[in-house]
Amino acid sequence: MISSTSMISNYVPLDVIDRILLRLPVNALIRFLCVSKEWSALINSSNFIKKHLNHSIETNSDRTLILKETFVNPPSQSRKGRNPLIRKCRKLPSEPMDTPSGSLCYSCSSFGFGYDPSNDDYKVMRIAQFFEGVLREFFEVKVYSLKSQCWKKIEKQLPIKEICSAQSVSLNGAFHLIVEQDDGSESILAFDLANEKFRLYRKPSNEDLASLEVLRGCLCFIECCPEIPTSNDFWLMKEYGDESSWTRIYKIESDAVLWNIDYFKPLLFPKNGKKVLMEGVSLIWYDIKKKRGKKVKNRSFPKRFKTATCIESLPLLDGDNVIDPRQKKNKRKR
């Protein structure tokens, strides 16, 4: 008996099948792994995984909003690289901190996860911050490569005085954080994952209370005003690396929303520019023209949650140290 997939392969060239599969979402591709050995080998190949990711980035398609319930379980001490769409993760090896000599105290660590397109590698950055007294601060930067599966210490010294926020965002093969320089001014620090060099960008405003996000594939700067709760200015760096391209795209006035919080996280900004989806006390659609926010109601939402937007992709489909929770459950049932 000739299988239907063999008949498809006889009539449809494999390169055409490849182009069709590239346009499908991840959940469909996971189902199609069972179609045939030929399709499974194609979808599992590193070349296909890379092309599928590039297609999603270039077409700005296959975006997924993830809601993570908070304040339910204590945070885990272990670090994992997780792909929630295929429900697999890779446990990262623990890495000790190399405390600088002298009577130093550990302050905090900042973590970031991003893609290095130049080396086709996913990397985790850890910046440990130490201080001695109130005047001197020291930093240790280490990067973990999922391809080489090892940590590497970055010997270059950070050109900064202090990290203002532990939150980092990944864009264009670089991590970004808001930092304070030696003269007291604040800037955006970028760490290039390919050449492992640091560079500084000027902020679009001098407001001290601020945050970074990625919106519409651009670096997004959110300016918060502590004197006026719920007042946020949103800026986009429309040409990455060009400080003159900072553009204010919209502002949330203090009386525009009913929820008294300091910061709204932008999640989705459609091309028509009429509304923006944000995370506040819940998910909120904010009408830019009417200057009004409307809460998104859904009974399936947890009471408290954090959100993240991700591009659908297939990394961690297989490889060393990959953990598949579904396989663990099947073993328990047996």
Uncertain runs: 72-76
Number of helices: 6
Based on secondary structure, the structural category is: alpha+beta
Sketch the topology as an H/E string, one letter per element: HHHHHEEEEEEEEEEEEEEEEEEEEEEH
Mean pLDDT rating: 78
Shape: globular
Helical percentage:
10-25%
Strand content: 35-45%
Protein described:
- The longest helix has 14 residues, at 46-59.
- The two termini are 33 Å apart.
- The chain is globular.
- The chain is built from 6 helices and 22 strands.
- A hairpin with a 7-residue loop joins strand 14 (218-224) and strand 15 (232-237).
- It is α+β, with helices and mostly antiparallel strands and 334 residues long.
- Strands 8, 9, 10, 11 and 12 form a 5-stranded antiparallel beta sheet that branches. It has a 4-stranded antiparallel beta sheet with strand order 4-5-6-7, with no helix packed on it.
- Helices cover 16% and strands 39% of the residues.
- It has helices at residues 4-11, 14-22, 26-32, 37-44, 46-59, 325-333; strands at 63-69, 80-83, 88-91, 105-116, 121-132, 136-145, 150-154, 162-163, 169-171, 174-180, 186-192, 198-202, 210-215, 218-224, 232-237, 246-252, 265-268, 275-279, 283-287, 292-295, 305-311, 322-323.
- Residues 72-76 have low confidence and may be disordered.
